[in-house]
Amino acid sequence: MDTVTHMLFGLTTYGAVKKEEMDRNKKRALLFSALTSSQIPDIDVVANITETGRVMGQMWHRGLTHSFFLVPIWAGLIYVVAYFIWKRKDLLIFYLAMINVAIHNASDALNAWGTGVFEPLSQMRVTLGVIPIVDLVFWSIILFGFVIIRIKRHIQRYKVWRYVWVGITLHIFIQGIQGIIIYQEAIKEYEEVALSASFLPGHFSVIGKNSDIVTLSNATVWGGEVVNETIVSMDEANLEPLYQENPKAEVLVEWSPFVVVVETDEILGVYDPRFYRDGSSFLFEYININRE
Q1: pLDDT tens, 159-177?
Q2: Residues paired with 267 in a beta bridge
Q3: What are phi and psi of 18, to 5 degrees?
């Protein structure tokens, strides 16, 4: 998910805590816990300051820092920092951090980018593709809760935010069921399938591959699959020169469920078809070649 959504998740989990009998320092510690833990897995972006980090960024981002095995470690670090600042030992601070780190990792796994939730035991990227990276439905549900709090001031705030989370969970469930149905239909037609949720609820991009043919389609549960484009991948091309001159290409091949290989008289490259829009993919690594 995007940074704004992660922040909103942190704020809403903080809002869902009943705080009427808490002192100011405890509230501040809880707010710090919720906001920091909602963002801390993305600390991996600092790796981009190194040359190796820039090459490996595709694999390192949403890698080890997003592992479920690190959830209690992140929560423990946040709890310790909160204690030193506000001198509060309440385990709720720790549990709220755990919840938000877990939400961050799980929500990232719901979209097409992929998340290493089982690192270091497995390099597999969990890529469900049932929620877009920026989901305006999440924002709308949260905005609705905020409006209710402003209009219905007699309603306890924490209850509103808990209902907001019911709405968020229901949206994920509905999207997930639709994604599963569409995926199950797609694997009957293709050897390899990747799913990517559209910004419009209930609409998905289906990327299927049979041999060297990649098919890009739009699909809904109620309308079926509509093929948009068919691409030929030059899978027999020798990619060693590409890997030697552009190490990011090899990382992309390892990271993606599958890639399209491009080989012409001018370029040799690979791209991730899940992010193919208007004739190109923004995840495209290539080199210029001269066959004269």
Answers
A1: 999 999 999 999 999 999 9
A2: 288
A3: -75, 120
48-79, pLDDT tens digit by residue?
444 444 444 455 567 788 899 999 999 999 99
- What's the rounded Cα separation, in Å, for the pair 172 and 135? 10
pTM of the model: 0.88
Greatest Cα-to-Cα distance within the chain, rounded to the nearest angstrom:
78
Strand order in the sheet with 224-232: 192-197, 204-210, 213-220, 224-232
Distance CA 217, CA 207 (A): 6
Dist. CA 116–CA 137, nearest whole Å:
25
pLDDT for position 187:
93
Residue 1 pLDDT > 60 = yes
Region 236-250: what's the mean pLDDT?
89
**Distance between CA 230 and CA 217 in Å, rounded?**
9
Picking from 135, 134, 75, 78, the residue whose alpha carbon sits closest to that of residue 99 is: 75
How far is Cα 67 from Cα 73, in angstroms, rounded to an integer?
A: 10
Helix, strand, coil proportions of the chain in percent (round to 5)? Answer: 55, 15, 30
Cα–Cα distance list, 282 to 229, 273, 274 (Å): 17, 9, 10
Helices 91-109 and 24-39 pack at an angle, to 10 degrees, of 20
Lowest mean pLDDT among 2-6, 260-264, 276-280, 285-289: 276-280
Q: Which two tokens stand for residue 281?
A: 């993919």
Q: Cα separation of 243 and 217, whole Å?
A: 30
